[in-house]
């Protein structure tokens, strides 16, 4: 239905989905499968894919095996490797759009600037930065926690005259060959970029603030017989997925909590370091001083060898300033570069909303989340009825596939949306008491995890509040999401 008001017509749907990454597209698929077809997906980019559209830096790949880092309702028997590259994952996302016929639902170049709940009519109103207007009975916020890249707060960053590239906005037109290049950051993206860049550039300088724990990765090309097997016997692929799921669940024991397995994982990582780096001083520079699991564990076989190439230098002195020609480190040396690559991560939505979200009685999510984002089961927020978050507060896994968690969120949202539409509800709003009780328990459990064991990471706010990770096994998270407890919600009937 389209009704005309003022300068932009209001486009209406039963469900508005913001974002066309894995979450937004998966949401549309599950809604369609549940018989809900009146959907609009708003995407600010010019194509689908989110993370995998944006992160096309050299070496970009998943660090959870592809058979697990994919949707169970959209299996792909043709993954070319254990850990597929960014282009292949993006093609998988495009194939979901084709196979589930999602194109008619998606509107591109619609950058949502704000959404507001209209209590009287039980509608969410959304506005884009160009003033286009939408309204829907329910809204799914699938804008992704890692979709806004962030540059570090280095003094003089704007004075630097050379080329600047953020890992999530790679400039493929810029020729790196023969150039002097710096990489700032040594996290999950950096350890994938550095082995590729060192082969292309004249000289590479890597600025490390904190060394991460690095585990070896078994990344094999998939033989043709294996693809044929998965094509003819989908059950075999399902079993493989389940086996991978089980292995990753076991890793929770090492990575989430301190246990004897934590010490084993640290030992394996130190052996990997000792095996790959012979120089004692360099090994010292690369040895973490925090517990494994506290920050994201890095999975790579190529990173340490790349750092030891003759055209690569690791600098562990802190950066104090960027100058017009390069980077000055604390010991006073100015290092000059043609190009600086920032593998410095994202502006993670752990304290504040991604855009203006106004709920009941003018409540503002950004204000409420300033001290740290909170939700009920990561998906509903009290005072913001008929709104569902994907990858919301405390839904992050440290040891398993984000898509496993996401699938359970999608199915939970379908149940909520079905309830709103079938019972003709004006509002389905989670009770504040249920949300508080949920969060008290989450924070109590988080206090005992490796994430909260003292290191500084993007999982925590500056005050040390953990608004990102789920302190349990994926199996526990899935069990929690499989139950839609109506008694935890306040239902307002229309009429
Ligand atoms: C480099 C990298 C590697 C990763 N590897 C793994 C991995 O191996 N395993 C794993 O489990 N997880 C991994 N992750 C986490 C990953 O982000 C998630 O697995 C998943 O891709 C997130 O999907 P999403 O749809 O929630 O968000 P996104 O993929 O970020 O999609 C969000 C979409 O919303 C759009 N959007 C944002 N704001 C607006 C707005 N205001 N209006 C309209 N549209 C908007 C964006 O343009 C984007 O298309 C990785 C993340 C990164 C950055």
Automatic annotation (TrEMBL):
<dbReference type="Pfam" id="PF13738">
    <property type="entry name" value="Pyr_redox_3"/>
</dbReference>
<protein>
    <submittedName>
        <fullName>4-hydroxyacetophenone monooxygenase</fullName>
    </submittedName>
</protein>
<dbReference type="InterPro" id="IPR051209">
    <property type="entry name" value="FAD-bind_Monooxygenase_sf"/>
</dbReference>
<dbReference type="GO" id="GO:0004497">
    <property type="term" value="F:monooxygenase activity"/>
</dbReference>
<keyword id="KW-0503">Monooxygenase</keyword>
<keyword id="KW-0560">Oxidoreductase</keyword>
<dbReference type="InterPro" id="IPR036188">
    <property type="entry name" value="FAD/NAD-bd_sf"/>
</dbReference>
């Amino acid at each position: 239905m389209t009704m005309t008001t003022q300068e932009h017509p209001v486009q209406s749907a039963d469900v508005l989905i913001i974002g066309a990454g894995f979450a937004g597209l998966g949401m549309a698929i599950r809604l369609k499968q549940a018989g809900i077809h009146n959907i609009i997906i708003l995407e600010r980019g010019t194509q689908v894919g989110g993370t995998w559209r944006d992160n096309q830096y050299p070496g970009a790949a998943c660090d959870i095996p592809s058979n697990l880092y994919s949707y169970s309702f959209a299996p792909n028997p043709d993954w070319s490797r254990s850990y597929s590259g960014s282009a292949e994952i993006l093609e998988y996302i495009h194939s979901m759009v084709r196979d589930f016929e999602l194109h008619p639902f998606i509107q591109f170049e619609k950058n949502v600037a704000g959404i507001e709940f209209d209590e009287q009519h039980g509608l969410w109103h959304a506005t884009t930065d160009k003033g286009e207007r939408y309204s829907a009975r329910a809204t799914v916020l699938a804008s992704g926690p890692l979709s806004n890249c962030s540059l570090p707060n280095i003094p003089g960053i704007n004075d630097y005259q050379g080329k600047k590239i953020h890992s999530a906005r790679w400039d493929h037109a810029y020729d790196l060959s023969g150039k002097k290049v710096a990489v700032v950051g040594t996290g999950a993206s950096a350890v994938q970029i550095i082995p590729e860049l060192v082969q292309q550039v004249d000289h590479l300088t890597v600025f490390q603030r904190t060394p991460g724990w690095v585990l070896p990765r078994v990344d094999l090309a998939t033989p043709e017989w294996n693809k044929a097997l998965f094509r003819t016997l989908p059950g075999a692929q399902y079993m493989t997925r389940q086996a991978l799921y089980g292995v990753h669940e076991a890793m929770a024991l090492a990575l989430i909590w301190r246990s004897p397995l934590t010490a084993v994982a640290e030992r394996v990582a130190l052996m990997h370091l000792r095996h790959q780096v012979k120089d004692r001083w360099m090994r010292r520079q690369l040895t973490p001083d925090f517990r494994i699991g506290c920050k994201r564990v890095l999975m790579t076989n190529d990173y340490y060898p790349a750092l030891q190439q003759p055209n690569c230098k690791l600098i562990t002195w802190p950066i104090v300033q960027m100058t017009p020609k390069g980077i000055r480190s604390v010991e006073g040396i100015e290092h000059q570069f043609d190009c600086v690559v920032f593998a410095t991560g994202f502006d993670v939505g752990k304290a504040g909303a991604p855009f203006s979200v106004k709920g009941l009685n003018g409540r503002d999510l950004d204000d409420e989340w300033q001290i740290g984002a909170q939700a009920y089961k990561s998906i509903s927020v009290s005072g913001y009825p008929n709104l569902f978050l994907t990858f919301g507060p405390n839904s992050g896994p440290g040891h398993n596939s984000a898509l496993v968690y996401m699938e359970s969120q999608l199915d939970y949202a379908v149940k909520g949306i079905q309830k709103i539409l079938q019972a003709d509800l004006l509002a389905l709003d989670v009770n504040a008491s249920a949300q508080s009780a949920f969060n008290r328990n989450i924070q109590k459990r988080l206090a005992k995890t490796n994430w909260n064991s003292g290191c500084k990471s993007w999982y925590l706010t500056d005050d040390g509040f953990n608004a990102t990770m789920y302190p349990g096994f994926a199996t526990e998270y899935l069990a929690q999401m499989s139950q839609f407890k109506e008694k935890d919600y306040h239902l307002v009937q229309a009429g």
